[in-house]
Amino acid sequence: AKTKITPPAAIEEASFVRRVSLDLVGTLPTTEALQAYLADADPQQRSKLVHSLLEDKQAYSSHWMSFWNDLLRNDYAGTGYIDGGRSQVSAWLYQSLLENKPYNQFASELIAPTKESAGFANGIKWRGAVSAGQTVPIQYAQSVGQTFLGINLKCASCHDSFTDQWKLTDSYGLAAAFSAEKIEIARCDKPTGKIAEPYWLYPELGKIDPSQPPAVRLRQVADLTTMPENGRFSRTIVNRLWHRLMGRGIVHPLDAMDS
């Protein structure tokens, strides 16, 4: 009202059925289903339709595999698969969607992985020499930060970021939580002689214990990421879903949540 913007009128019912069906299960409604919906005088019919589509677990899971494959970089062939330097999470992902796994558990199993979900955390083990920003532990830091917190640690994997608050030590600290070996910090691919200490990006929420083995440290990272006090975790997935359904994130670009 303050800016004199007139809200758009609600779309008519047949268009709503078409759009929500494509959004949630990826296919158009049958003629019979559409006619039954249009004949329903219940004022809650839109809500009822959404619930019924979400309850079609197989169709929902199959359709939303594409969203999660993109976000988790879960390819089916290509770089890394030739010599076993990469693994899929496809079976784990489909089963997780099918059983409607709670999102905090879903994320935890990717951050502190099971055998079935380890492909995300392990990333790509490249053949031959790679830059410091392409090592498996650094990939882990980049993937966890971007996927679950909407932050870009890729720039800060080479040097302190030019565009936001993240430092080289932040990326290496999260990478060190993953690594079974000590990691020497490299700035612009030049070793600095400094060893990275396991570090959580938001220390006001808690810390990672560097004395613990990697499996315990990753459990700590998972708990710190998904804890209710970490509002960034929930806001990031809400923003991603809003973008998927509305075409633009509440915060845009999606991976610039600090803005």
Short summary of the structure?
The chain is built from eleven helices and two strands; from the N terminus they run αααααααααββαα. It is mainly α and 259 residues long.
**Percent of sequence in beta strands:** under 5%
Separate helix tally = 11
Shape, please?
Answer: elongated
Low-confidence segments, ≥5 residues, pLDDT <50?
A: none
Mean pLDDT: 95
What percent of residues adopt helix (DSSP H or I)?
40-55%
Global structural class:
mainly alpha
Q: How are strands sequenced across the largest beta sheet? A: 1-2
The number of strands is: 2
Note the main sheet: 2 strands, antiparallel
Radius of gyration: 22 Å
